[in-house]
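Quick start: read one record
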Amino acid sequence: MAQARLFPKSLSHLLSAALATASLVLPISGLLSANAQTAEGWSVCNETSMIVEAATGRPNQSTTIIEGWTRIRPGECRVVLPAPLQAEPYYLYARSSKAHRNGTRVWAGDYEFCVDTQGSFSVESAPSCEAMGLEPRKFKPIMIESRNRWKTTLKETQKWTAETARNAGVQRLLNDAGVENTTLDGYIGRRTRGAIAEFLREHDLPSDTDDSQLIDALEQTAIERSRDLGLMICNRADERIWSAIGRRRGEGWESRGWWPIEAGACERVVDASLLATEHYVYAEMEAEAGMKRLAGGNEAFCVSRTKFAILGRTTCEQEHYDQVDFVTTDVPEDGKLVFEIFGRDMEFVEQPESETE
């Protein structure tokens, strides 16, 4: 069975409609653009409301060198590779900071390379990520057409400018750090200014703290806060899983998914204090021999084949959802719980026998 265990300068303007609450692989089409700009080398610009960490791949004779991570604040551009550049494909993968709630967002593609998810790294193309203690991630190819200057811009569905992205990033971080539950609209109002002033006072920071320092301080506070809240699902299997949760919400029930969790990784799927009652987990895995699912489920909830948040659990078919059995967790203590899924916990989904005439 799967094992669950307990675990212990000021801003003149600010943010926007948030992304979906599940962990997402953000589609590249329409969200990633590149063009020439003034900075020397290859710059990555962050026009999202999140702090992102970028890894790059660059051609080196007959191989590709993968390096990471370059941290880029909202509204900021950073040179990820110096000039001169080559007229060959480069590669980019980016992920959101752990400070942000509701799971990791990634900007990805179809080309798989090895990365060190825990710290800075530089590695040539490797035949086996596991043998080197690394993990595979899928990079987006970027065709650089200038030897001296190139810019790639990361975007999200809300269309920010560099300025409104920075403002929205501060608003998001105020939410993540538990300072203020504010709307992400990219503009500063009296309420947001008050929340910033409160944060600066509580952390003994000067009132003229600049935007970059404020973002850094908020990120650290949010990371520290996130370590001690909510439900974490850890994938101890050898393949990526797609996870979902069920829980009681007020007087009713809710199911929500999907969170993609790479092999050996963990994802915080609920980042608020948990009720002292059972929660429910479901997972699927694509294997060569067919689809696998988390075994031992005993509580039925609704799921959809796409990202979902469904209220209720008794009218799945009528609402055109699938109904599957979720596994019951232990009761959280102090509002937190880690649920681990091992390869042995996954079973093949039985396919209905085809009818014969």
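The first strand starts at residue 3 and ends at 5.
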